[in-house]
Amino acid sequence: MAILRKAFEIRAQWDDEAGVWWCSNDELPLTTEAPTFEDLVARVLEIAPEIAAVNGLAAAGDEIELHVVGERVQSVPVVAAASMPATFDRERRFPVPVGIVSRHTANGVLEQAGLPRAF
To answer: What domains can be seen in the chain, in order of their start residue?
Structure first.
């Protein structure tokens, strides 16, 4: 028999003006913020069980399921094609992750663009 868990979807958004991620859920009721998405998720995992218990949404020993969904919308300037390196493949389209931390990811993006590894 499967264990039924109460599930909460927590919407996280980037606040460009404050420079933080924030999230809220009216049903849980939870609102918090953190400087990175990973810190925000850690904070939610820390405080959500107690908030659920205090508000009668779960009892001690129960498990709750948390879905932290992040969204970041940001405007970026478009670079003129003339300023791109001559080796850049202008016909190829590829995603560029925001906030690359790993040198492996950064080198992978460069390779997809037809540029040499730099990290």
So the answer is: 6-71 (3.30.2390.10), 84-112 (no CATH)
